[in-house]
Write a structure and sequence with these properties.
- Chains A, B: InterPro entries: ArsR-like_HTH, AsnC-type_HTH_dom, Dimeric_a/b-barrel, Tscrpt_reg_AsnC-like, Tscrpt_reg_AsnC/Lrp_C, Tscrpt_reg_HTH_AsnC-type_CS, WH-like_DNA-bd_sf, WH_DNA-bd_sf.
- Two copies of one chain form a homodimer.
- By secondary structure, chain A is of the alpha+beta class.
- Chain A folds into two domains: 6-46, Orthogonal Bundle (Arc Repressor Mutant, subunit A); 59-139, Alpha-Beta Plaits.
- Chain A has five helices and five strands.
- Chain A has helices spanning 6-17, 23-30, 34-46, 82-91, 116-127; strands spanning 50-57, 66-74, 95-101, 107-113, 132-143.
- Chain A has a four-stranded antiparallel β-sheet with strand order 3-4-2-5.
- In chain A, helix 2 (23-30) crosses helix 3.
- The two termini of chain A are 31 Å apart.
- The model of chain A has no long low-confidence stretch (mean pLDDT 94).
- At the A-B interface, helix 1, strand 1, strand 2, helix 4 and strand 3 of A face helix 1, strand 1, strand 2, helix 4 and strand 3 of B.
- Chain A binds a DNA duplex through residues 22-24, 32-36, 38-40, 42.
Chain lengths: 145, 145
DNA sequence: GGTTTTACGCGACAATTTCGCAAATTTTCG
DNA sequence: CGAAAATTTGCGAAATTGTCGCGTAAAACC
């Protein structure tokens, strides 16, 4: 993976905001020709710098109107179960993000559900189990960024 | 915003994974003509169902190899400063996600930085201020999802 | 300083998207 | 239930966008 110059950085910056920018739109903002921009973007994709392009969908469409951040603390006396839990969390459709972290907690989840009932069902199904010692639910009131 | 049928749902599902799918690729998987698919996608964009399309960039490219989840607790005696802080957090380039939440904490941040030093600078610049009572840093060891 | 390498812009070509239109399907309403 | 209205489809043409080769210019290397 070769070095990225300021043109590449600018392109990434722009595409990170709007991946549908056209060659000439990029050209205008970057100061290269359309073809040059597209060639660079093509290489950025092939080399894996741009991992993929995704559509951001309004969560209300799927009836997922509620987001919850969950701080999970594990029972550290059962390290064998960790991979199982990992797999389970990755599989759960409600979980849109899941990080293993250091500190007072072990796992931070971002969960999208329709409503409280839905969330409650998720908790019962996934979170209530002996390997999880404690979990703290933080309902998202508003997305600042 | 009209009702979405199964075709729209399938299109969204596909584009959520890969926004660069071409009209005929969509047609093949959805069972409509290329033009019909593209027309529907166009409408989904215009109506805001598809909020935007973004390129996912390998974080290492920008040298941001470290992710931290930060739980922020505010001094609730200064409600006037909330909007200021909001704006400041939204502006900070290190902050990739920022939610206002209920519960034991007030704000949950997702921060991407190069290293500890970088993170420390971020903390000093943004987080160390009278309006913030406390913050808890959870370094991300691994992204499960 | 000359040579090689790399990247650019230009322009032709290919692929993709957009648009108009008639037919088909679905919805509305008497 | 059935006809009129509205919506959506597929097809094909037109427009836009992306890809590629080529000659040239700039940068890197020796």
């Amino acid at each position: 993976m070769a070095e990225l110059d300021k043109f590449d950085h600018r392109l990434l910056e722009l595409l990170q905001e709007n991946a549908r920018l056209t060659g000439s739109a990029l050209a205008q903002q970057v100061g290269l020709s359309s073809a040059a921009c597209l060639r660079r973007v093509q290489r950025l994709r092939e080399s894996g710098v741009i991992e993929r392009d995704i559509a951001v969908i309004n969560p209300r469409v799927f009836g997922k109107r509620m987001t919850v951040v969950v701080l999970v603390t594990l029972n550290n006396d059962r390290p064998d179960r960790y991979n199982l839990l990992r797999a389970e969390l990755a599989k759960a459709p409600e979980v849109v993000q899941c990080d293993h972290v250091t500190g007072a907690h072990d796992i931070v989840l971002r969960v999208k559900v329709a409503d409280m009932e839905d969330y409650s069902a998720f908790v019962d199904r996934v979170l209530v189990q002996p390997y999880i010692k404690r979990y703290e639910s933080l309902a998202v009131l508003g997305v600042i960024k």
